[in-house]
Structures are given as C-alpha cells and as structure tokens.
C-alpha cells in the first residue's frame, strides 16, 4: 500500500551504497545527483584499472574531473575535495573471479552496503555474443552473488534496457516475456559455443533480437529472477533511448556518443543524410536525468518489499515524440548553429527502400574513393592519411545507421509508472517540451562533444534543491574533431577531382 509519508530523501539518509558503471554516461550523472541531493554515509564505486591507470587515477581523471561535476564543484567551493571523500573507489572488475575484490574489500562492502545500483554494461551493439555475455550476463551474475552476501541489503537495482523485448513489437508491459526454463544452463552452453561462433551462427542465435546488447541484457534479467535469493528485493529499471540531460546537472549535458546521439551527431556534421527507417514512427527518447531520478526514487520506494519489480523509463506511452519532429528540430538547430567541423549542410531523409539507401551511400562514397585514389598516387603522406580517415568516417556513419535501423523501423509503446507513482516521484514525462529538449540536446553535442563555444538555445536554470521526492569505437571521430581548425585543408584538395565528374558526384561542402 502506498504510504503518503514516504520520503526518498529520508530513506537514503546515512546509508551506504555501491554503484557500478560510474565511468559511463548514466553512471556519472547518477553519482553527481546522489552526491548533490542525497545524504549518503558512503558511496562505494567499482572501477577497474585501465592502461596503466590505477583506480584512484581513473576516479580523478575520468569521473571527478568531468564537467558533469562542475555544478557540485561550484556549490561546495573550497569544501569540494573534502565533501567527495565519502566516495570510496574500489579496484574491481566484472570479468574477474569474485569481481577482483580482496577479502577485506568484499567484507567491507557486505558489512556496510544497503543499496546496490548496477549500471555497468557493454553497450557495444556490435560486440560478439561472447563479449556481450561476459559483461552483461556474467558480470551481472557476480554482482548478484555479492548482493546475496550483503547483510543489510535493502534493494539490488539493475539498470537494464526497455529493448530487452526488441524482438517483439507493439505495447510492451513491465514483464519478463517467455523466459528460458533454465537460463543458467542455456547460457553456459551458449558461452561454450560462442568461442567458435561465426557471424551467421550468431544471427541464428539472436533470432529477432537486433543485436547482442539487447539479447544479453534480456538473459541477465531472466538470470536475476531465477537465481535471486528468496525474499530478496530486486528492482529492474528499463530506460528506453537515453539522451542528454533535460536539467541535471545542467541542460544538454552529454559526454559520449551513445544511443541516438551518435546519429544526431553525424547528421549535424552532414555525414549522414539518409536514415533507414520511417520518420512517422515514435522514437522513445528519455533524458538521462529522468533515468537517474527514476532509479534513485524507485530504488527507495521498492526497498525491502521482497519482490522482483520491473519499471520502464520512457516517454512513448504518455508523451510520444515522432522521428519527424526530432529531425525537423535538429535541422533548425544545426542550420542556425553551423559547426566549424561541418562537411555538408544538414539534410536528413528517411527511407525504407534499401536500394535507394545504398545509392545515396554511393553518392557520398564514390568521390571519397576517387580522392583517396588520387592522393595515393600524387599526394603527400598526410593527404593519404586524411583521405583514409575520411573514408573510415563515412563507414562509421553507415555502420551507425545499420545499428539503429531496427529501432528506426519499428515502434514500441512501453507502459510507464502508474499515475499515483508519477505524482509520488515528481518525474512526469508529460512535462517534457520536446522542441526545447531536442534543441538543447543538439546544443549539448556541439558544446560538449565538438567543444565549440555556443549558447544554450533554451535557458533553463537548474534547481539546486530537491523540492519534492525526487570509447574507442569513435577514435576516428576524435581525430576528426581534433583537426577541425584545419578543416579547410580537405576542402582545398577536393576540387582537384570533382570538376571532372558529373554534378551529382560532387560532395556538398
């Protein structure tokens, strides 16, 4: 029964929490909100060492030095360093036995932690089944085993994805659909086979699932249900397509090309002009701070209920936005805020015709191939390197289109939190003004990814009081952004060859 006296703020007061995935986009925003708004005793975060960087170096450079924490840094001033000492980085790795924790570290966690939020995941849609299983399934399984040992655990919160049911269409409820009878046996056998599995065999295993990410996240949910300890509270949070922040830590915040942001980014630079899909369909976007607020508040609300609860975090059921609106508002933004790195003016169309799509791709690719052939014969080594990089960028854009084709060509409506819970959580998706949000979303891409000096199109002052309850895959993109100031060098070389070809072959610069 709903308790009118329930307070999220009071629930977390003086408690200790363990969070995984804090080097990621959602994890950073979650940590920032938890520090700024909730009064935890301790926040343990699991971080693995990486490329010679120990745990504290990664914590300092990848997390605390992030602009995501600028608002908190300004609020605390000189007390910031002392304040964040409640965050305790622990050297851990989801791929290692016992999470790579020492006996002392494991004892400290199991003795002190009240809440675990598992935000760690491999979001690489192109990962092999083997790689995706290792983090999304076996990593989650290790977190579950740790949670079982915690003496004071009140809730294990697992951040999944609404697209665990991407093999289905239509209205998707907060359920597990047709789970494996024994998911542990199924996955153990699948993992053995995955070591020798080719692409065609992998497609057969995936069936109607569009990628290994959604497939393995679905298996992880089934595992959590089947292996949970009796009366153990587990709360599954299923966000849809996570985008930049609406308000927290500030409007438009984004620090990585995840979800729809990658396609919006490439379109803004003029590198993607044709999308596979239907622009009349709903695209279920959700701001990252909405995801974080749902996680924190639902995690407190469901604590100690001894149940297995699933929540969707999306907009399609109560405040849907169509692909066409997303495109038109993005066009307005990039037309009025031309990026220094732009290759072509913003132009996006959607098509379900595969032949037309391939022809449009060739229209971009042929001039780039001819340019590469020319500089290979008479150009400098730097020109040859630029031509190869440009080709790889075009390939990356096409690759992203293929990845999101399934989501652009299908429509889901996800059931959302019940009406009384929306009032309780003070997180109402109907309050989102999509035009303002999409403008600020694109602003965030230009401000924080391109690192260009632009003004916020729709000003929204962040509120510092909670008045109610409340990658390596883009190395080529990084290269492109690093040399944006020398962008004219490519433009000066391209006319060499385009003059001798028909007009339709010329790139639109």
Secondary structure layout plus pairing:
Elements: H1 8-12, E1 16-20, H2 25-37, E2 42-47, H3 55-64, H4 70-76, H5 80-83, E3 87-91, H6 103-112, E4 115-118, H7 129-149, E5 155-159, E6 170-172, H8 183-194, H9 199-206, H10 212-227, E7 234-239, E8 241-243, H11 260-268, E9 274-276, E10 285-287, H12 288-301, E11 308-313, H13 323-336, E12 349-351, H14 354-378, H15 381-408, E13 412-414, H16 419-425, H17 434-449, H18 475-482, H19 488-493, H20 495-498
Helix pairs in contact: 2-12, 7-10, 11-15, 11-17, 13-17, 14-15, 15-18
Key terms for this structure?
509 residues, alpha/beta, seven-stranded parallel beta sheet, two-stranded parallel sheet, globular, disordered C terminus
Textual characterization of the structure:
- Strand 1, helix 2 and strand 2 (about 40-45) form a beta-alpha-beta unit.
- About 45% of the residues lie in helices and about 10% in strands.
- The protein is globular and about 65 Å long.
- By secondary structure, it is an alpha/beta fold.
- It contains 20 helices and 13 strands.
Any idea what the shape is?
Answer: globular
Q: Kindly state the mean pLDDT as a whole number?
A: 78
Helix content: 40-55%
From the N-terminal CA to the C-terminal CA, the straight-line distance is 61 Å
Regions with little confidence, pLDDT below 50 for 5+ residues: 403-426, 463-509
Round the Cα radius of gyration to an integer and report it: 24 Å
Major pleated sheet: 7 strands, parallel
> DSSP strand (E) fraction?
5-15%
Which structural category do the helix and sheet elements fall into?
A: alpha/beta
Number of strands: 13
Largest beta sheet: what is the strand line-up?
Answer: 3-2-1-4-5-7-11
DSSP helical segment count? 20
């Amino acid at each position: 029964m709903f308790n009118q006296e329930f307070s999220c703020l009071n629930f977390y007061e003086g408690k200790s929490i363990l969070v995984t995935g804090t080097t990621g986009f959602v994890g950073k925003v979650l940590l920032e909100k938890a520090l700024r708004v909730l009064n935890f005793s301790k926040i343990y975060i699991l971080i693995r060492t990486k490329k010679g960087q120990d745990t504290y170096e990664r914590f300092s450079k990848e997390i605390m030095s992030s602009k995501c924490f600028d608002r908190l840094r300004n609020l605390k001033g000189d007390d910031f360093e002392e304040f964040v000492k409640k965050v305790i980085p622990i050297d851990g790795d989801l791929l290692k036995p016992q999470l790579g924790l020492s006996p002392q570290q494991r004892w400290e966690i199991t003795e002190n932690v009240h809440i675990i939020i598992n935000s760690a995941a491999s979001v690489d849609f192109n990962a092999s089944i083997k790689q995706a299983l290792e983090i999304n399934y076996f990593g989650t399984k290790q977190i579950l085993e740790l949670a079982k040992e915690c003496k004071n655990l009140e809730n294990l919160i697992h951040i999944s994805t609404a697209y665990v049911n991407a093999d289905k269409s239509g209205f998707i409820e907060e359920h597990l659909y047709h789970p494996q009878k024994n998911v542990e046996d199924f996955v153990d056998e699948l993992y053995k086979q995955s070591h020798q599995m080719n692409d065609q065999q992998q497609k057969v295993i995936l069936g109607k699932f569009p990628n290994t990410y959604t497939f393995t996240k679905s298996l992880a949910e089934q595992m959590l249900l089947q292996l949970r300890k009796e009366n153990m509270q587990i709360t599954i949070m299923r966000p849809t397509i996570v985008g930049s922040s609406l308000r927290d830590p500030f409007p438009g915040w984004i620090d990585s090309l995840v979800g729809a942001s990658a396609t919006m980014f490439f379109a803004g630079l003029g590198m993607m002009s044709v999308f596979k899909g239907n622009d009349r369909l709903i695209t279920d976007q959700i701001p990252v701070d909405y995801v974080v607020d749902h996680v924190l508040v639902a995690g407190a609300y469901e604590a100690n209920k001894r149940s297995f609860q699933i929540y969707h975090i999306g907009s399609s059921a109560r405040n849907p936005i169509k692909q066409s609106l997303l495109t038109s508002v993005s066009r307005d933004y990039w037309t009025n805020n031309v990026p220094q790195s732009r290759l072509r003016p913003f132009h996006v169309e959607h098509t379900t015709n595969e032949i037309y799509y391939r022809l449009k791709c060739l229209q971009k690719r042929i001039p780039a191939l001819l340019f590469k052939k020319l500089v290979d014969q008479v150009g400098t080594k730097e020109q040859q390197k630029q031509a190869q990089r440009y080709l790889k960028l075009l390939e990356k854009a096409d690759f992203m289109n293929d990845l999101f084709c399934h989501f652009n060509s299908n429509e889901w409506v996800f059931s959302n939190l019940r009406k009384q819970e929306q009032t309780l959580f003070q997180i109402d998706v109907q309050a989102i003004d999509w035009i303002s949000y999409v403008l600020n979303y694109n602003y965030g891409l230009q401000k924080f990814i391109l690192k260009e000096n632009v003004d916020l199109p729709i000003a929204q002052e962040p509120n510092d009081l909670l008045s109610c309850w409340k990658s390596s895959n883009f190395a080529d993109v990084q290269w492109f952004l690093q040399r944006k100031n020398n962008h004219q060098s490519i433009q000066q070389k391209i006319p060499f060859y385009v003059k001798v070809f028909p007009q339709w072959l010329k790139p639109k610069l």
